[in-house]
Amino acid sequence: MFTGLIQTVGKIKRVNKQQHHITLTVSVEDTDRLKGFKVGDSMAINGVCLTATTVEKDCFSVDVMPVTFQKTTFSQMKEGTLVNLERAMSPNDRFEGHIVSGHVDQTTRLIQKMKYENSLKLTFYYPPELKGEIVPQGSIAVNGTSLTVDDVKPGTFAVALIPHSLENTNFDRLVKGDYVNLETDVVGKYVKSLLRTTIHLNEEGHHA
Predict the structure, then answer these.
(1) Does the 106-192 domain belong in CATH 2.40.30.20?
(2) pLDDT of residue 62
(3) pLDDT value of residue 197
(4) Where are the beta strands (DSSP E) in 75-137?
(5) Residue 130 is inside which H or E element, if any?
(6) In whole angstroms, what is the distance from residue 177 CA to residue 143 CA?
(7) Cβ of 86: how many Cβ atoms within 10 Å?
(8) CATH code for 8-87?
(9) What is the spatial distance between Cα 73 and Cα 75, in angstroms, rounded to a whole number?
(10) 106-192 has the same fold as 8-87
(11) CA separation for the pair 159, 142 (Å, rounded)
């Protein structure tokens, strides 16, 4: 499990595509973030939970299945791409973000990027597949970063980033048209599923 609080930004060092999987190697300038990190440990890379297959002092590698590669922004990554990194949460850690599983629901594109007072407002296309899962003041993970939804309009939603978030993520590199990984709030998913089940049962009872 993750919290969506990005710990550092890494850089794609190598993308090795093979027949049944893709290997990503990520370099980390802040090597202290890899202390104690070992083969078999989990790392969220731009919000995607992956398992380390090799670990060195300043870099690590993970294997990505083709379906994950195609479903996420990994398909657009190349050497030098900056990625948000968060190690799996320890039982002793403070829980300050929101529950992030590391399983990306959809990708979406940036529609607008504008300064808003001392923050940066990012507006994204609202994928219809996520209808009802993105709500004003709700939580959402964008490239693995726990953010609060600023507003929702027909076909779009927006988030606002404070200076700290900008300094510690890869969002300052985003430009209009870029794609990001989305993971909606797990609580919202359960509520949505429960409502669907309730409606279905009511309809069955009505027709019985």
Answers:
(1) yes
(2) 97
(3) 66
(4) 82-87, 106-116, 119-125
(5) none
(6) 15
(7) 27
(8) 2.40.30.20
(9) 5
(10) yes
(11) 9
* Nearest Cα to Cα of residue 185 among 142, 144, 133: 133
pLDDT tens, residue by residue, 47-92? 999 999 999 999 999 999 988 999 999 999 999 999 999 999 876 6
Which amino acid makes up residue 6? I
Characterize the bridge pairing of strands 139-142 and 48-55: unpaired
What ranges do the domains of the chain cover? 8-87, 106-192
What's the Cα-to-Cα distance from 13 to each of 7, 24, 78, 89, rounded to whole Å?
Answer: 19, 8, 8, 25
Q: Structure tokens of 205?
A: 């009872």
| pTM confidence score | 0.89
Q: Is the pLDDT of residue 20 over 60?
A: yes
pLDDT attached to residue 71: 93
Encoded amino acid at 194, one letter: L
Q: In this structure, are residues 63 and 23 in contact, taking their beta carbons and an 8 Å threshold? A: yes
Contact 89, 3 (CB under 8 A): yes
143-160 average pLDDT score: 95
The encoded tokens of residue 146 equal: 């726990």
Asked if the model's pLDDT at residue 112 lies above 90, the reply is yes
Distance in angstroms (rounded) separating the CA atoms of residues 40 and 44: 13
